[in-house]
Specification:
single chain, about 500 residues, alpha+beta, five-stranded antiparallel β-sheet, about 45% helix
Length: about 500
């Protein structure tokens, strides 16, 4: 019986000893390993594995590496090798000798595994962080043309662009932003087609950036805007690889932020926000008609409701007599001035839009359609608004969604409120004052030092063929004058 208890005790002690940490006390570790463990102190998700027989320490984050790749390419070959063959194994190409402790820490945080042997440290790329597959863009849908979109993995985004531009002249500058996040930012340009000062200016602005964190492209461009207080975006953003590739070929810079599915391009102009990728994937006449329709939508969305307020408040003489009777009858039960009536309805439209965007897709569509119809009819029946105002507000809201760029569309919707208030104060004169202020403000904006109203100011009529209309591809300059980059010489044999 005593012998049986003795055996049980020895087995228990052996089991506890095997479960105890196998790592050396910190004082006995090699300097680089000791420094690494000290840097990741209190990081419970860090994995530190020690193989005593072959004198190897392995340090990595389990959720950032590809476990299958780690075992197949690193752990298994090491366990199968003899102790005297380990040094030969570490001389293979996948192991990179690292002498800088900062590079070692950054490598581990990037999903690499650190291998410590004797007094040397190596990094092996076994990264496999979670990421979603390439899908379709939710904000830039097209009817014809490619349907793939960027995702949050900068490596995938670079691959999508390299797939479309198979040229050694496509250059990539890698930068790091954020004292805490250390976010990777990639600036792409095609050497020989790009105006070099633009690249230098963009790199300089990003390097001078002092902030703790950058999580998205829109955060970065707000820091490096020429005028960060302006309501208008000065960098064009896109989720579409084909759009980004076309910007590169036209001589612009494209920026990729790791962790963001959106890229930016610069320099840009105000009119560039009204073009869409599928303009070039259909017949030029259809592309031109669609683009002109967008400019018409821009005019409608900023002025239609304000024009209603100005006319019904100060300028009844501008209304045709047949329509005046209908308008007077519609407004006879409304107790509020037109400006208050319009502001309430505009705010309700924005609330419905925001609710529809935040709710799940199927519920959001229901809220937008049913809510708009129910609230509109109830408001008219209750005498809180007129039928004509409902038409004006709905037309303005619909027109704002015709603009391809969501960021520009949001900016224009805010301008609508400013013009609405000015129209309520001073009528048509207030509208003209507001529009003049917008034009003056746009004239003073720049994008990487380039005029924001190019090719209207400065005047470049040749570029109008791809700005206000979508001319045939044979007539369009491949690189607009804003980019100050050379255009190719057409072949003499081409007719």
């Amino acid at each position: 019986m005593n012998l049986f208890k003795f055996i049980i005790q020895r087995v228990t002690r052996s089991k506890n000893a095997s479960q105890a940490p196998t790592a050396k006390p910190e004082a006995n570790l090699q300097p680089s390993l000791r420094h690494t463990i000290h840097e990741f102190e209190d990081c419970s998700d860090l994995t530190h594995r020690r193989y005593q027989d072959i004198r190897i320490d392995l340090v990595y984050f389990g959720h950032l590496v590809d476990q299958d790749k780690l075992h197949r390419d690193t752990i298994q070959p090491m366990l199968q090798a003899r102790s005297e063959d380990i040094q030969t194994l570490l001389e293979q190409s996948q192991y990179h000798l690292t002498t800088d402790s900062k590079d070692l820490i950054k490598g581990i945080l990037s999903g690499k595994a650190a291998v410590f042997h004797e007094n040397e440290s190596y990094l092996v790329d076994v990264a496999g962080p979670p990421s979603r597959s390439v899908g379709q863009s939710e904000t830039e849908t097209v009817i014809v043309g490619p349907h793939d979109a960027f995702n949050e993995d900068a490596g995938v985004n670079l691959a999508l662009l390299r797939k479309r531009i198979k040229s050694s002249h496509l250059k990539v500058v890698k930068l790091s932003v954020g004292e805490v996040t250390k976010t990777d930012v990639y600036l792409l340009y095609i050497k020989g087609l790009n105006h070099e000062p633009y690249v230098q200016e963009a790199v300089e602005r990003i390097r001078k950036l002092e902030t703790d964190s950058i999580f998205d492209t829109h955060m970065l461009i707000e820091y490096i805007d020429d005028s960060s207080t302006s309501i208008f975006p000065q960098f064009l953003t896109s989720e579409r690889p084909d759009a980004a590739a076309s910007k590169l070929v036209s001589g612009r810079i494209v920026g990729i932020v790791d962790g963001s599915p959106t890229v930016f391009s610069a320099p840009t102009s105000f009119f560039e926000f009204f073009s869409s990728s599928d303009d070039y994937y259909q017949r030029w006449i259809l592309g031109t008609a669609t683009r002109l329709l967008r400019y018409l939508a821009f005019a409608v969305t900023i002025s239609f409701t304000a024009l209603y307020v100005a006319v019904t408040t100060y300028h009844y003489e501008m209304i045709p007599e047949s329509l005046l009777l209908t308008l007077a009858e519609s407004r006879s039960r409304v107790p509020f001035p037109p400006v208050y009536e319009a502001l309430v309805m505009e705010v309700m439209i924005e609330l419905l839009r925001e609710a529809g965007a935040r709710l799940p897709t199927k519920i959001g569509q229901t809220i937008g359609i049913v809510g708009g119809i129910v609230i509109g009819q109830a408001a008219v029946q209750a005498g809180l608004t007129s039928n004509i105002l409902i038409i004006a507000v709905a037309s303005s809201a619909i027109s704002s969604f015709v603009i391809p760029s969501y960021v520009m569309s949001a900016s224009i919707r805010l301008i609508r409120f400013v013009l609405l208030i000015l129209a309520g104060w001073w009528g048509l004169f207030g509208m003209f004052v507001g529009m003049s202020g917008i034009v003056i403000h746009l004239s003073g904006l720049t994008s990487l030092g380039s005029s924001y109203l190019t090719p209207l100011a400065p005047l470049k009529p040749r570029d109008w063929l791809d700005v206000f209309v979508r001319a045939p591809l044979t007539a369009i300059r491949q690189r607009p004058s804003q980019n100050k980059s050379p255009n190719p010489i057409k072949s003499k044999n081409r007719k």
